[in-house]
Here is the input.
Amino acid sequence: MTLKRLFAGAAAMAMAFVLAAPLCVRTASAATELTVYTAVEAEDLKRYAAAFNEDHPDIAIKWVRDSTGIITAKLLAEKNNPQADVIWGLAATSLLLMKGEGMLEPYAPKGLDKLNPKFRDKDNPPTWTGMDAWIASVCVNTVEAGKKNLPMPGSWMDLTKPVYKGHIVMPNPNSSGTGFLDVSSWLQLFKEDGGWDFMDKLHQNIAWYTHSGSKPCKQAAAGETPIGISFAFRGAKSKAAGAPLEIIVPKEGVGWDMEATAIVAGTSKLEAAKTLVDWTITKKANTLYNEGYAVVAYPGIAKPVEHFPPGIVDAMIDNDFLWAAQNRKRILAEWQKRYDSKSEAK
Amino acid sequence: MAEAAAIAARPVRAKLSRDDIIMRGAMVVLALFLLVAIVLPLYFMLSKSFETYTYRFESIEFQVNDGDGWGETLNALTLGQALGVVTPERMVTSNGGRFQASEFFPDFSFRSPRLYRIRNAQEDAGGFMVGGGPVFHTEWVEVTSNDFRRVQIRPALSTGVDNYIAYVNTPSLFFSVYNSLFIAVTTTVIVIGLAFFYAYALTRTCMPFKMLFRVIALIPILAPSLLPAISLVYLFGNQGIIRELLMGERIYGPIGIVIGSAFWTFPHALMILVTALSISDARLYEAAVALRTSKLRTFLTITLPGAKYGLISAIFVVFTLVITDFGVPKVIGGQYNVLATDIYKQVIGQQNFQMGAVVSVVLLLPAVVAFIVDRIVQRKQVALLSARAVPLQPKPNRRVDIGMGIYCGVVAVVIVGILGMAFWASLIKFWPYNMSLSLGNYNFDVMDGGGWEAYGNSIRMALYTAVFGTMIIFSGAYLVEKGRGFEFGRGVIQFLVILPLAVPGMVLGLAYIFFFNHPGNPLNFIYGSMAILVLCTITHFYTVSHLTAATALKQMDPEFEAVSASLKAPFYRTFARITVPVCLPAILDVSIYLFVNAMTTVSAVVFLYSTDTTLASVAVLNMDDAGDIAPAAAMAMMIVYTSAGVRLLHALLTRGLQRRTQAWRTR
Here is the structure.
């Protein structure tokens, strides 16, 4: 091979990549393409889109998926130049932040009155509607707890007992939506002073705080820690994968957040966006949500989900989302001051 | 008359040839590229760090109605100052800050029948929130006492140094500076110590298996920095196989960060130190022997000073790499906060972009200081090797050779052990409860993080970076080294190409968000695309590539250009026919360097990838973050396999090419 041919080859290869790149991205071209931001698990997205396209083949969905924190950051960063048309499947507390910035388009989807009133924005017309609830739980690894002779905890207060010192992992509320949900629920359950008092004691037993909300349960599943404060859905999945886990619902009640849907203000495809949001609150859509989540917005259709702890629905506290969203900044600053400084780092 | 005098007084200047014009045009293009790729993003980040949010209470007005009609209009600022609830410290907040309106009414009770009215005195002053939504217009908004508790005042955007003041006054943030410095200094001391003796053994002894030891020590370069951290979890975590070695200490924290950082920075230090120790003058050692100088004294007075500049360079490289690394502390840092993880937490966790920018500026400082000191020291370096120097040939010394062989063996076993642990863990079905082997962890498509698509994207990104990066960087180096005249332009470019070395990847990534996502930026469209990832990666690794290319070009005699010019051959023909073929080994080195780094980098791209462009290295991070540590290990190993495969291909290609195009080097 001569040098010339080598160069020609290299150049052709480079050209091929340049040409191939845009081709790979654009394949489907339906009548309307909606850019939908979501934090729903990757494996569920394909099902959601397929079910929607059964009824509305003329609207194609372009998913932009990431974890709750990152999608929230992305939306806020794009505040003055929104890229999304619809948000489908993001924490209600995150949507409230966006509502506070005036980023959401108020819209009352068809069939709104059929939803459980807990699962909608209180404004009329609402800026967001709920899909399903995502409930806090405690994952306990029975093998590791047995090895260390730890009793099975039954309540949040149990977790403050000295016997659990260094054996509990929970998400950092500053980086995890689940962590914030825990903290805001404790402040509502035990009231402001009692809540901080509880966390002061709990902090003594925490081995480390994780960045993500599912990690404590996965670490409990892997025996890295005996107890992880996480959410029920994650625990049920790990249990199904064969982890020696017990999912505990603390008897005082558990915090929860919901995945919700909203139209981004300023979208140029408002009609298609409304069609999609109408569909997201239908019975059919809610049946889909029920495959992973035990509690959904549409009353009367939820079937029990495998490995979900019994009684978890009754334990859901009467969560004041607006209060949580409005006080988020203050709570996080206080939390950081108390528990995130160097003196605690071991 | 006057005109003629002016013409006469004009100095004589060489006429610009067509070559010169093209070259200057190319140089302007290169300067523009660097402006967009590094200067403007950094400027935008700096200005972002001075963006603050302050409450504009003077433009908020209240009225109260106790059933007897609306009372007088109350200004929030006057009212707040009289009550003492508005103080200068409380005026300053950050993005998302909210001030409770009921604080202006000490007798407030949400059960009271009193009615409240609130309005903006002017439209663009931040506004207030009613029922969770913002109000910016200047009409009165009437609410009951029960709803008034949900009324909050929003801050307005302004500029100032308040973010920096807040940073220094937040202990949890400010402590990260100490933590980062502690980790960086400790790791540097350990790595430099280990690498120096390893390099010494490779260059100054007759120890056996030198080639093998050299290859093993360079392996960590092929892995993302997340890999050692993941391995450490399996080795020393609570279910780790050799956790007893830590004697009760916990791996999550400074110990883990230091070990993990040492693993991946070791080859960087080693390469510099091997080069430094390879250059030596045997005559000095002969003189030492003749004067009966002791071994220790010879080492202290000849070997160490000879390697001085290499040592200083290695120290700064390791220090900068560690302090700016994000992967290791993210995975194994536990509660131990460092600057790099703080940026991530501020931006991703709290959406506080301004504070993220402040931490970035703080992180930029030590890197810039290290960079400047290194430059100053390098300038002082004089040629150690004169033309009369005799290269030192190490003599066999049984005791030293065996001792060094054992030492290198131990280091090599640790490196292979850490890598092997990740390899093994990636094949275990469900650690530690089901230790059977399976490839289930490689089934990335059922996990968060982007699946196999992310791996494909990484390969594409690395190829683009290698192809386009090499083209840009080599042409740029050619313009700077071989260009004629236009000293000023070349000086500016020379400064600009060194700049990326001092900018940590995370800082660059964040700067890119601020710059490219700005709605007024005409380049806005590349935000979220593959192009921005490629641009960011090329920029991040620009300097080292440029220096490699420049060194190769410097070795070429300028007469090539002179002869071509006298033969009236345009410079681009000389470039294509002579310069490129002669420098082909260096070009290949640059492209492989870019490829491997594009595969392994996390910090530069973690803020920039989008759903269509998830990358393997980011997938490792996100899978670990979600707790899927075994698949994270599997993906990290995929990166290692790929980088190693490409390296191997490169070695074969270089050998073939060298035989074809570099025959002139041998006589």
Observations:
- Residues 3-25 of chain A form the longest helix (23 residues).
- Chain A has a mean pLDDT of 85.
- Strands of chain A lie at 32-38, 59-65, 86-91, 104-105, 129-141, 168-171, 206-210, 227-231, 245-248, 256-264.
- Residues 134-255+324-344 of chain A form a domain with the D-Maltodextrin-Binding Protein; domain 2 fold (CATH 3.40.190.10).
